[in-house]
Design brief:
By secondary structure, the protein is an all-alpha fold. 75% of the residues lie in helices and 0% in strands. The chain folds into 3 domains: 143 residues, no CATH class; 89 residues; 64 residues, Helix Hairpins. The longest helix is centred in the middle third of the chain and has 100 residues. It is rod-shaped, with a radius of gyration of 70 Å. InterPro entries: DnaJ_domain, J_dom_sf. This is DnaJ domain-containing protein.
């Protein structure tokens, strides 16, 4: 079994040569640590003197440490060990030793008054027996323990009690006023902060609303501009359609009139091209080639052996070819 599961006092009991002596040692140490005006060295020397005949077999330091820590579970366990292992006479002997170390200086401290009563109760010693034993050892009757919660106690033990109490009350009242003033100032500060925050929120809300309104107005202007542009585009498209339709009507009318108008004789340029065997659109090079070809075919010299009539016809044709060529070269 792991020793970590045991308390320090339980470990001392396990290692002790006499558990009763170890338990008694802790009870007496508990009384000694509540002795006023006694140094730690004096406490240890007195404890060693009282328990010189004990057979516990360990140092006093761990026991004093447990007593200083006010480990009530350890103290209750020590009392149970004593009550279980000891007779009534031994219990009375332990209580006797406790009274002795508690009243060495002739005075019983308030703490030890309650501790001795607690030990008597743990050891099953009746209050009457405890009072008798105390009187036999000290020669003084055991008085009832004074109550520190009552003013009478402090009037006896502290003459300045009432004055100090009044000063404490005044200080407490002043402190309460200061706390109230701080609380009021903090409350006002919080209210001011809240008001500032609310104003900032309202200002931010107004600014946001203003921005939203400006944005809406800007969007409306953009929408109006877009609508106006679309309207102008539609008007432009409509005008273009109307012009196109008018142009189509005009062209249709022109074609109709062209169809209805009688065909006019070809102009001189067309006639000249026809003489050279060309069509409209011929260029100057085409005209030269056609002229040379036609001149070779219809030159009068080719008909010198023919009749006068053939020569006359050839001369007329060549003259027409030459005239058409000259006209075209001048006007092309």
């Amino acid at each position: 079994m792991s020793i970590a599961r045991f308390s320090p006092f339980e470990l001392l009991l396990l290692k002790s040569r006499s558990q009763v002596d170890t338990a008694t040692l802790l009870l007496l140490a508990w009384v000694l640590v509540h002795r006023q005006q006694v140094s730690e060295g004096q406490r240890r020397r007195r404890l060693a003197q009282v328990t010189a005949q004990f057979r516990h077999g360990h140092e006093l330091g761990p026991v004093m440490s447990i007593a200083h820590n006010q480990d009530l579970q350890a103290i209750q366990l020590a009392a149970e060990v004593v009550r279980k292992e000891c007779s009534n006479e031994r219990s009375l002997s332990i209580l006797y030793q406790a009274i002795t170390v508690a009243t060495d200086d002739g005075e019983l401290s308030l703490n030890n008054h309650y501790i001795l009563g607690f030990l008597a109760d743990l050891l099953n010693v009746t209050p009457a027996t405890f009072s008798t034993l105390f009187h036999e050892l000290t020669g003084k009757p055991l008085q009832s323990a004074e109550d520190p919660s009552r003013d009478a106690y402090w009037q006896v033990h502290d003459p300045e009690y009432h004055a100090r109490k009044a000063r404490d009350a005044h200080a407490a009242e002043q402190k309460a006023k200061e706390a109230e003033e701080r609380q009021r100032a903090n409350k006002e500060q919080q209210q001011q902060k809240q008001q500032n925050k609310q104003r900032q929120q309202e200002e931010a809300h107004r600014e946001k609303a203003k921005q939203e309104q400006a944005k809406q107005e800007q969007n409306k202007r953009e929408q109006d501009k877009q609508q106006e542009r679309r309207k102008r585009q539609e008007q432009t498209q409509q005008q273009e359609r109307q012009r196109w339709q008018q142009e189509q009507k005009r062209q249709e009318e022109a074609r109709r009139q062209q169809r209805e108008r009688p065909s006019s004789p070809p102009d001189r340029n067309t006639r000249a091209l026809a003489v050279l065997g060309l069509t409209p659109g011929a260029n100057r090079a085409d005209i030269r080639r056609a002229y040379r070809r036609m001149a070779q075919l219809h030159h009068p010299d080719r008909f010198y052996s023919g009749s006068e009539h053939q020569i006359a016809l050839a001369s007329t044709r060549f003259q027409r070819i030459k005239s058409a060529y000259d006209y075209l070269m001048q006007n092309t």
